[in-house]
Amino acid sequence: MVNNDLKIFEELESSVRSYVRSFPTVFKKAKGYKMWDINGKEYIDFFAGAGALNYGHNDEKMKKKLLEYIAQDGIVHSLDMATEAKANFLEKFNEVILKPRNMNYKVMFPGPTGTNTVESALKLARKVTGRTNVISFTNGFHGMTIGSLSVTGNSAKRQGAGIPLQHVVTMPYDNFVSNNLDTVEYLERFLEDNGSGVDIPAAMILETVQGEGGINAAKFEWLKRIEEVCKRWGILLIIDDVQAGVGRTGTFFSFEKAGINPDIVCLSKSIGGNGLPLALTLIKPELDIWNPGEHNGTFRGNNFAFITATESLTYWETDEFEKSIEEKSVKITEFLNNIVEKYPELNGKVKGRGLMQGISTPIEGLASEIAAKAFENGLIMETAGPEDEVFKLFPPLTIDNEGLEKGFKIIEESVRSLVASKQLVGQ
Amino acid sequence: MVNNDLKIFEELESSVRSYVRSFPTVFKKAKGYKMWDINGKEYIDFFAGAGALNYGHNDEKMKKKLLEYIAQDGIVHSLDMATEAKANFLEKFNEVILKPRNMNYKVMFPGPTGTNTVESALKLARKVTGRTNVISFTNGFHGMTIGSLSVTGNSAKRQGAGIPLQHVVTMPYDNFVSNNLDTVEYLERFLEDNGSGVDIPAAMILETVQGEGGINAAKFEWLKRIEEVCKRWGILLIIDDVQAGVGRTGTFFSFEKAGINPDIVCLSKSIGGNGLPLALTLIKPELDIWNPGEHNGTFRGNNFAFITATESLTYWETDEFEKSIEEKSVKITEFLNNIVEKYPELNGKVKGRGLMQGISTPIEGLASEIAAKAFENGLIMETAGPEDEVFKLFPPLTIDNEGLEKGFKIIEESVRSLVASKQLVGQ
Amino acid sequence: MVNNDLKIFEELESSVRSYVRSFPTVFKKAKGYKMWDINGKEYIDFFAGAGALNYGHNDEKMKKKLLEYIAQDGIVHSLDMATEAKANFLEKFNEVILKPRNMNYKVMFPGPTGTNTVESALKLARKVTGRTNVISFTNGFHGMTIGSLSVTGNSAKRQGAGIPLQHVVTMPYDNFVSNNLDTVEYLERFLEDNGSGVDIPAAMILETVQGEGGINAAKFEWLKRIEEVCKRWGILLIIDDVQAGVGRTGTFFSFEKAGINPDIVCLSKSIGGNGLPLALTLIKPELDIWNPGEHNGTFRGNNFAFITATESLTYWETDEFEKSIEEKSVKITEFLNNIVEKYPELNGKVKGRGLMQGISTPIEGLASEIAAKAFENGLIMETAGPEDEVFKLFPPLTIDNEGLEKGFKIIEESVRSLVASKQLVGQ
Amino acid sequence: MVNNDLKIFEELESSVRSYVRSFPTVFKKAKGYKMWDINGKEYIDFFAGAGALNYGHNDEKMKKKLLEYIAQDGIVHSLDMATEAKANFLEKFNEVILKPRNMNYKVMFPGPTGTNTVESALKLARKVTGRTNVISFTNGFHGMTIGSLSVTGNSAKRQGAGIPLQHVVTMPYDNFVSNNLDTVEYLERFLEDNGSGVDIPAAMILETVQGEGGINAAKFEWLKRIEEVCKRWGILLIIDDVQAGVGRTGTFFSFEKAGINPDIVCLSKSIGGNGLPLALTLIKPELDIWNPGEHNGTFRGNNFAFITATESLTYWETDEFEKSIEEKSVKITEFLNNIVEKYPELNGKVKGRGLMQGISTPIEGLASEIAAKAFENGLIMETAGPEDEVFKLFPPLTIDNEGLEKGFKIIEESVRSLVASKQLVGQ
Fold this sequence. Notes:
Aspartate Aminotransferase, domain 1; 427 residues; 4-stranded mixed beta sheet; pyridoxal phosphate binding (chains A, B, C, D); 7-stranded mixed beta sheet; alpha/beta; 18 strands; Diaminobutyrate--2-oxoglutarate transaminase (chains A, B, C, D); Aspartate Aminotransferase, domain 2; homotetramer
């Protein structure tokens, strides 16, 4: 029997544990957009497993399929052997996702984590081009293993490497320096000048909306121009859609509306459907020059995830799901704009796209305090950005109006109370 | 409906797929030490998910717990938030595994793959010591992400990196040069001579039995001496027990009988119980200097795996399980010695320890042919070693006598027929 | 006996030889600003050993001192033992150069080449700060050994390394992107944003006027702001004054008029006085934490160079020399402006500062053709820039009016004839 | 006027100065094997500029040629333009050195230092093979710039880099582990095993006798086998003959008697004849794939050095010089063997070859004390080895019997007095 006092975690778990510090309770059960701790307290989930639970918790249809599969002694673990569950997933992914979008990609199953798909993408891009260098972007976040960490901007995470992180040049993301500076022009100067010290890289890797980096949404036009620069110089374009993909920004892939056609796409988090570990690397067929087993891993064949992932794709068979995300996006934007206007003390700025929006506030520590207060009030919500200066709304895409409104109410209440307390201090 | 012709994999999956080429059928169902393809053909499993299925497929008790948990809408995915399932796992791991062995480790949950625990171990060792260099050993295999790949010996895998792999010095594993050369003396000369070009490293990382590297078992005495060298020079000792651990060599940790006390231990594969992705990094408390979130990842909280992992630890509550592994080990050794003697044409050598044994043969391609023939005859068995020169017997630890005997029979039949066909060619 | 047909060089010397291809004759004798080949043909020297012969060839006073020294069997080679010649140099350098400028530096004698002083500066900066990263600037040129090459921008030179060049981030030099873009603001954004992927570096290294990089002169204000940024972030400022120093831009150190106070200064080329190999690294006393012998080399004690270097400092005992350089600078600027105006077909742009000026022309290959034509006509002049798009006037600082005028005449004649021939082609 | 109190060096020179601490006096004049300080005290030189003064100080014939050249205003500095002095050197080097030895090499002039020829050799080997890795050997010493430092074993020097030194694997030099262990067999196991973690390198680089590393002389048979391994695996063999070359071990190239045929040879130190900076890289013609200017440097055309170097080659026109070195070698060996025998307290071991011999003693600090005492008594002699455990006899090759005997006497006196004083302490 477990108490709700976290003592066991403090005693036995490494100090590296993190979210348990932001959300200090012991969870037991979850459904849709709700979670309950072992005391039965209910929480609205505006966190959604940092984007791994886009379809909410324990979706009934996925759960049913999984229970059936387990009951029949379906294969659990298969490395990259062929299984029925995997075949079904591949077929449905092709039919529902790739074909209707006129996309032609080979599917690679790296180890079942975001960092593993990124590592596989970087390795392949270097192998294909014979170049070692990769261009990443400021405030990009791609994972914690050395290859992915090298293309990640966050200095605290980078210092954790214990070795210099190399073979990477960081270029300014859209709007990094200021709203006026055209960062693509800048980037291209480095490529075109033979004395710039920046070699033509194997690839550029980027997120279309930077989740961990502060909910920075690149303009579609900027993405399009980056793609053009890549084409001009023979550079592969890798889109890391681990967090922004699978509907989070409104479309299955986050880059659909930008009209770009990446060479390699990284997927993980919600691709498994209900939160089970899974990752895909999508590769243009002409780049699929891997030798058999050249990148491998034990858990590439997580068949439970194939079962739930396959079922989750049903959401994408019509365009209803996209429309519903769009409607919720609009509501969130309106809500956030309203907050910024109503509480000028926040000095807030609405950021992001789709169900990946938030407010940044320059007041030190305030975003974290708002999130902490919201947690007290029954809402799970995370912060982001290099100084944790953004609180971000990441509800399941399947959330209903009631859930949204409840969440909004808690957030506004948290903002109001903190602004009020700050004012008292200020006087 | 899926056919058994693999066409869908050839069309849609990346050329990196590998085991599907060795075991070309579509699997559907599995139980204990048996698997079935979609045509209903039965296979004896002497592969055990490359060590991820030490308790066999779909263990009834684990399955029951998991079905209950899912039915109750238990949390699926929790990052590193606290959950009841995680608390139960931590407690049982402490009670059943650590305490009885007088071990004192903090438990870190890195991303749920072997390479992720290795990456976390290397990062921590570098952080603790402030040194960048790590000593790895010839034919070590630690994973495919850049940090782990750097300490992996296999040249084909290393070339896949596309960048030079650095901050690592490879030293000779036990018996690498010859049976007579004392590789520890050699290693220590490099450490003690200030002109050797080898800096005192942050850590040494090694497997006690090298699985992928060719079923090379280090002598316990060699391990003990390596530990002494580490102590003498203030070097951390990391044991990668991803494949050799969780009972595979006869004890829960593979290094128990060597009497060593590693600073960091990497666990994955079978730690999840039934093949679900999970990994642990065990850290001496005084080395647990991680900052919160310094190494993170989306799927650290795979609660299904916590449920099955917790149940799996029941196997270790008494010493019966260890005894049964020991008995099977003896049988396998006898069987293999017999094969080597009976088929001198193999020029075979028995290698390994526990349920991690095999036969190496210098005849080019022969080990792979034996494995391929065995697959035709209904046995799943892998090869290992830098030239795939070893066929390895990796049955579930829970296999019964009947299963073992069936497997032995198929192996011997495969050896016999290939030796016979070689001889015909030879005449 | 040597012919003037270069056959011996083609047969025996490596294909790496370079200037012999631009100036294809065998030189025999030189005096002041003149050189003669073995056929007795005279050349005006507007190249000055790429900045190593600022005092011209075979200065009479230096020659006299050297002949005396040799006649007395003075020490030739002394590593870093103490010699009378070295003591005299140190004293005079202190009296004539450092003291009057209120500069306080320890003098280090690295190996007698530019790349060696740069390597020593980078090593010391890393040692002092404990950081590995260094910021260099686009089109910087610092040398060909791996440490210096890492901070050099030129891609052809970089590829010669054969290994990835690391531990360096290249930032835009003044005016790199456009005349309007403030590259210091840009640079500082990277330093101040914790998610930028650019760690605070050990040092910034730069030339105040980039010689090889295309005669790019940084504004004094830009240099001042770079120094401020370094101070703000605790970054060491290394000025590589190997080419721009020793009077080339008008003052002994090229940075004097910018009013900055570098932490480390690299000197070589003309510091030896008459073209003998010598290099100095000037180090703020509080940074001089070298262990004895931590950076060494065989030819640190080139006593012939101490003799001529000491004598050369006599030029700096009054301010007359500076004034005369200033006057010549003005003449060169006028001449170049006139050329640009008179020959609009050049689409020329005057660049540089002091006796380190040139004209860039965007017409492919034209600058090289002008230099080649000038050589035919008896003038030695080099090109620079990533596309060799600049022809550069680098006469000895001691050149007289007659020499300047002769050189100008040959240059104008070369420009005129090439512009004329291009037009003919164009019609 | 300079005093002999070193104050000026302490005040103005960096703490990196080193030999001035071992030989604390101000030198003024030198001739043959003798040096004089400014007080007129005479010293026997058994140091010879660490191998840069093999022909002694101020050789009369070289001096004469140089004075004539200077008097005629010969070119001093020419980068890599063609000069008469350079042509003469190339021709004589070809006639006197290469042709009689049936050697076919292109001559490259890198910057005029040992580290620069090593850097050029490593770059070229990597360019030719397309590989990044290089194998160096324990206690090798190749220079202080980053490329050369990477292949240098000494840990104190390596730490001075301030960055991890990479792209290098250090293998055991002959007799590194013990006299019995065959280090070539060991090395080759790493190359032949695909799982060894050691990629086939671009090159191996080594000295035939390690000067700084402790006067370790590799057996000729060992060198021959290393060459065979290089051939077998397509690895380039670079001999760094900077210190052991130009007659130091008895033949012009140190490897002549080993019967090997290196792909690249590095020369510097005594190649300039009288201690002036010069370096050559000798390259097999088929490997000379440099682009023009791909490796460059300001002081490649040190014409004074060409003049003296050309004259110095006269020593090699007959075999008398070799014979005289041989005779002196025998004398030195006899002297050292006698010392070891006569003073068993030294626990001494004679090491080295030719005029590059010494005695190692395990008694901490003793070798340095002997050298210090010898200096007091008028002999300049250096120590070597990772613990400075060897005192080394490095007289000019041109020394006469009287000089040798004087030196021997001072050394024996120093040994005797120190051994005596130690015994007193010991009682």
